[in-house]
## 1
Amino acid sequence: MQSKKNLYIKIYGCQMNVYDSLKMENLLKPHGFSLIQDEKNADLIILNTCHIREKASEKVYSELGKIKKNNLGVKPTVVVAGCTAQAEGEQIFKRAKNVDIVVGPQSYHNLPKLLEKVKRQEKWVMDLDFDEESKFDEINLPENPRHSSFLTIQEGCDKFCHFCCVPYTRGKEYSRKIPDIYREAIGLISKGVKEITLLGQNVSAFHGIDQDDTIRSLGWFIKKICEIDGLKRVRYTTSHPKDMINDELFIAHAEEEKLMPFLHLPVQSGSDKILKSMNRDHTRDFYFEIIDKFRKHRPDIAFSSDFIVGYPGESDKDFEDTLDLVKQVGYAQCYSFKYSPRPGTPTSMVEDQVPEEVKSTRLAILQDLLRSQQLEFNKQFIGKDMDVMFDKAGKYSRQIIGKSPYLQSVIVESDDNIIGEIKKVHITEAGLNSLIGEITNCN
């Protein structure tokens, strides 16, 4: 009988890392590992890392510096996984001597074998292969998934935006086969999952092969899984505007009630000059056309986006173009960051960098505008009823938190166990980051 070993996983970055971390947990359970929430008692520590910004990577090294022996005085096995692992490889061993394993995002299914090598006192064990199919062959369904679950259908990216490291850390675009992901969706729903978010670095480029060798689009697959009894909600993220040209996706938004009316569609900049410099391969007018087409098919749809401020060569006029785009679209929520050069990307070697103080000033202006839009969006629901899927308890007694169709956090008070259920909620208050309401009796 295997002795029980404690596993601690710290997740950085995107939803894909959340999905991958759950798969690593499930992969290691048969080998005697149980997940804990405190690294002090861990036998195995996995840092599942992000490399999209410099700050994210430096946080990992800071965390590695803090990892000490556990409470029994034993050094835990330390694994650096994810995109920083893929990008920096052996450099991690040089900067952090307490790291035992470096494993890329396409190779974590080999963790049991890598741990055996460490057990045999082999040092600096590394696996950075890009073998997408075998990874998905090895992963298992979680034993007790949450009522809302991620499902990866696509990985990698072929766009090569000049600021982005994803093509180098996640590899080329790869879409899983339709029967495999459909089977995984069925399995999740059979275990009580009611909401599925389809994941991909560029999920809108999904081109999965069906059992009859037909290539299917994202819109087609959404309509397919919406037919599954027990599934209540479907979402997908993250998309690239260039791939939003397939009418099946617009039709899915128009016809499928289970598909939530909320879309994360990164634009990064509102300046055509900067978009070209970024190698985004679309213009601001094309972005507006996509937004308008979605609104035509689904009038109540809302959008979020990503913005990079202070990209090399960004002028005052370019920044004003970004502000203008934000005002024209009107976002429900957004993510915005100062440009951070990533080693190996084309713009990391450009000399025309924007001064740090200019970046900070522009970011503050943009975020003020985005926050005002987000608050205005939230306030429009005061006095209205909305369907909320409840997924966790709040900080206080009787408090339960759920998600609206637009991914807003909705807080109610209830004595009933409603986690996992969808309830009609009358919204009474709205803040920047959440809504407050009361459960109605009209369910």
## 2
Amino acid sequence: MSALWAVALTMFLSGGAKVRAREDMWAVFTRLKVPRALAAPWLARAFPWLELLLGAALLSPFPALRLFAGAAAVALFTAFLVLVVRAKGDGISCGCFGEASAAPISRWTVVRNVVFLVLAVLALVEGIASFQTQDAVVWIPLTAFGSAAWAWGLVVALLLATASFLVGRESVPPADDARSVARSSGPTAGVDGQEGGDDPERHPFPAAVVTTGSSYRSLHDLVAEGAVVALRLSPGCGSCARVIGRLPEFVDRLGPVRARVLVPRHGTGQEHAPPRGHIPHDLVLEDPAGAAIRALGLTSYPSAVLLGTDRLTAGGPVFGADAVLDLLEEVAEIMAIEAPDVQPARPAGGGRP
């Protein structure tokens, strides 16, 4: 196995996943705090295509171009490593492989990126060797290593297998799978570990990242503090007005279950702030590029899904004002029985979601 091949494959998978997911790369750049000099909007939009171009350059039949591409890969993976180390523990995702990388950055993300950097360094070494010999074409890139080529290839193969394992370890169910929860729209279950009478089908939901102000958190972190009714509402939606008008009432009745409104955000700065209308400010969670909304299957306005503390959906998603209000009413009734004396958790404006 050639390191040039391994890094090219990584570039193709990473760039292709970003293009396929249509993720807002500007939102990714923002949450990773990419330095201002490199955070131009045009560069964010072009980034997935630049990754694909770099992968193609690594497979070029021209030794000089492979050498240049190897050096670019080392610089790129060094920057990736610095960004994920800095963001570790912030509860944000890296978006490295599109929607599959929605899990928060952890120490395993750092280890994975170290492995990728090592592979990039090995690819650069191959590029230098092939440039010096001028006879190692891309489809037989290890000829410059002579009899040691098999050992080199084995090391590369082991590193690639390790990186693949770590990528899979941090992957989450794709949005299309998560949307299958739409088939379950029955009564609530699993609220703080309690089962409802009708036992609706339950599904895992991914650790998509949401934000309020400058604070980023994953959905998994959010439910660690208690069950959440996630709603998709819009101030410009006529049927949503019925739900929005009754939100304060339900906040008081839901007890420890929190109601949160996911509002998609497709950029940064005040000019990109999503409209909130009469939606209470302290209930709003901004959703970068609408990734959490898609992953939860909230495909229309208004809609809602109950997220249990065990990281499984506990009811819904449901669609339409009547169904959403029925879901809220049912959760309120369950909480009136299960936790009649517990006050609702209501964060101060601008606090953690």
## 3
Amino acid sequence: MDHEYFMEKALNLAQTALEQGEFPVGCVLVHKDKIIATGKREGTAKSVLNEVDHAEIIALRNLAGMKDYNEISRQEIIIYCTMEPCLMCFGAILLAGIGKIVFAYEDVMGGGTNCNTKDLSPLYKDNKISITPGVLRKESLNIFKMYFYNPTNNYWKGSLLAHYTLSQKS
């Protein structure tokens, strides 16, 4: 499995989101070396924020809409995210039965992958998932820096995540 290849595809989606003024997160779902669903962050470029349409949620929604959805072993799916999934997305990924998360850039403010699933209810803790952080981290960091350096982008402006991101060396 070429994690960098698929993360580049997610980074392309993040770049598209950035160009649209959205918070630059991209996501691809891969099954047997084939991209089967994608998503990019939506709902941050308007005056009324949408905190539901995260890249991972959109990709999972697209996955669920596939005609052969029930024939795919979701445990064999790898989800590639340009930023560590938040707690909402991590929960949705667990519920979907995805087998592996690969992410580029850590979310120091809202990342959910450090959640101790052993302490959760059976619906969540019984799902087996592996996590690989830091794949193409520098490339993702650079996209987030472009976002936070742009004075017209107000989403998470002045936040812990913004300060942390802008303090990182590329």
